[in-house]
Amino acid sequence: MKRLFILLAGVCALSPIISADNPVARPESVVTDGNTRFTVLTPEMVRIEYSPKGSFEDKATFAIVNRELPPVSYTTNDEGDYLTLTTPKLKLRYRKGSDPMTEPASPDNLSIQMTGPDGRQIMWYPGLRDSLNLKGTTRTLDGNDGDAYRDRLENGVISRSGWAVIDDSPSATRPDGSRSLAFTGAEDIPWVTERSDSTALDIYFMGYGHDYKKALKDFTRVAGRIPLPPDYVFGYWYSKYDNYSSQDFRDILSNFREKDINADVLILDMDWHYNGEKEVSGGRGGWTGWTWNTNLIPDPEELLADIHADGIHAALNLHPADGVAWDEDFYKEISEDMGMDPISKERVPWQLENRDFARTFFNHIIRAREKQGVDFWWLDWQQNLTNPRMSGLGETFWCNHVFFNEMKHSRPDHRPVIFHRWGGLGSHRYQIGFSGDTFINYPTLAFLPYFTATASNVGYGYWGHDIGGHMPNYHPVNDPELLLRWLQSGVFTPIFRTHATKGTYIERRLWKYDNFPLMNDAIRLRYSLFPYLYTMARESYDTGVGICRPMYYEHPEEEAAYSHEGQYYFGNDILVAPVTAPSENGLSKKEVWFPEGTAWWSAAHNRLVKGGSSEVLEYALDQIPYFYRRGSVIFRNPPEVKRVTERPDHLEMTVIAGENGGGRLYEDEGDSQNYATQYAVTEVEQKYEPNRTVLTIGARKGSYPDMPLERRYTLRVYNSDGPAEATLNGSKVESKYDAATHCMTVDTPLMPCDRPYTVVLSRK
Question: Exposed end of the chain (fewer CB within 10 Å): N or C?
Answer without folding.
Answer: N
